[in-house]
Amino acid sequence: MGKQAVSLLEAMGYRNLRYYVGGMADWTESGAVIDKSDAPVAPAPVKSSAQLGTSRRLSWLELLANLSLETLVSVWLGMILVFGLIYWLAGIGMGWGLQAGNSAVKPDLDGLWTAIYFSFVTALSIGYGDVIPTGALRIFAIIEGAAGLLIFGCVISKLVSRRQEELTEEIHRTTFEDRLDRVRTNLHLVFSDLGSVQQLQAEQGVLPELVVRRLESTVRVFRGELQTVHDLLYRSQIMPDEETMHSLLANLVICLQGLVEINGALPNGRAPALDAGLRSVSSLANEICGECVPRVYAPELKESMDQIRELARKVA
To answer: Is residue 180 domain-shared with residue 304, that is, in the same domain?
Structure first.
């Protein structure tokens, strides 16, 4: 056995290993015995019957909880009608059924309405006591009461959950609108900063170091807002209206045009941070085009997207 194989097997927990100069091929040809037994493996833990029972119960409850609100209400009403029929048929076929006061409920149409009334009262756990079950129907009444509480609890939970989802959607919509306002504001600030840099560049020719640092910060802000618009086009579940989207794309075009003009006048030995920021902006904006994004937009928006991609190639 080779030295490397010995070291590897020892690291895996094997002991009593020896190095053989001839290697495995020579050892096998000589007819020597090869022990192929594996290292002991710890047995997998076995779930107890109580754990398995709990798992089954949880899956059954999860199945019930995953039903829609309309389905739960239908199941609850259907259960009440079925148990009402059981109470009424028990009085007809078995001689024992429901008792109202001191007299048994008759197996007629009025008795059917009484049985359904008792079923509703039992499912709602009201328990007026004006109608009571007799004999084995007491067991059915207990089962119906427990099932009614469980299903009705799921109905209430669904109603509360639906209201929470509405509130969550409202919060997301409000947050989304605030985010769009911030994007528009930041793009306007980027455009203003780029205009100031262009003016200084026209007046002085060479930008001071402080202005270059300000330009780096402006490019980073623009890159972040560009990423937001990119996410809106590709991955956002909520889409702004076309007018808002057109405004955002138009702002991107204006800012990219400013970057192109400034970049063309910068010296070749520009700061590495600024160069990296411009390359990142170019790479991200290059993914925005009318045929690239997975959604269908108006022709005006596609035209702005193509313009953004064309400017992105000039930035870098």
So the answer is: yes
